[in-house]
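Before we proceed, please read the two lines closing this message. Report back on whether the structure tokens fit the sequence:
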Amino acid sequence: MVPPGYGTDLAHIHDTGFGDFARDVAPGLIRRLHAAGIRDGVVLDLGCGSGIWAAELLDAGYDVVGIDLSEDLLAIARERAPGGDFRCASIYDADLPACVAVTALGEILSYQLDDRAGRATARGLLRRVRDVVRPGGLVLFDVVAPGREPEDGRRTFAEGDDWVLTLEASQTPGGELRRRITTFRRDGEHWRRTDEEHVLWTWAPADVLADLADLGFMEVRALRGYGSGHRFPRGWAGFSARRPV
């Protein structure tokens, strides 16, 4: 995904310091694709980030189209997974290709990097997804749910060989989640500071399930995690659905 988010330094830090999520869930996601009878074809990865999941898909024999707002993340993705087709665009108005499956991992449908983000817009995106995924195709995604952050907020930090990140997160009673992120990255003998604020909206799991069913998806399910080695913590909800055959 500096505007609209994930500029050069945060893209580097996100990839090197926080890429384990995509690596950890990849085996379980591949198993879900196989269980749905999907072993090849184009997988559309919305909010593809630095291409970790895309590279796993390519290694498993799929083709990948990745869409993200951050050119800096996409630059990493193109180097990591040169066989992928990566496009810089908003997921809300990008041309969506015909595909066998769609993924949106890491709270992508909750991010408000695009001012149009919200339940109504996400519902419209899911309608477009339904129209491009093949009959029987699989849709997998996750969103921010109520209770993601404690009532009094949270502060934390992380560090790597050439970076330090501090995070201040808070969630309003109405469900808006704000993450204020400050990064410091080594630049020769000096350190460079950047600041970003990411706003996410909360989607009640019952509303997600209702919207998917109303849009005509079948086998609509809430997920406890993406595989046996991954479970969603409180305030993070995952879903799977299939287009009717």
In short: The chain has two domains: 8-147+202-242, 154-200. The longest helix spans residues 20-35. The longest strand covers residues 133-144.
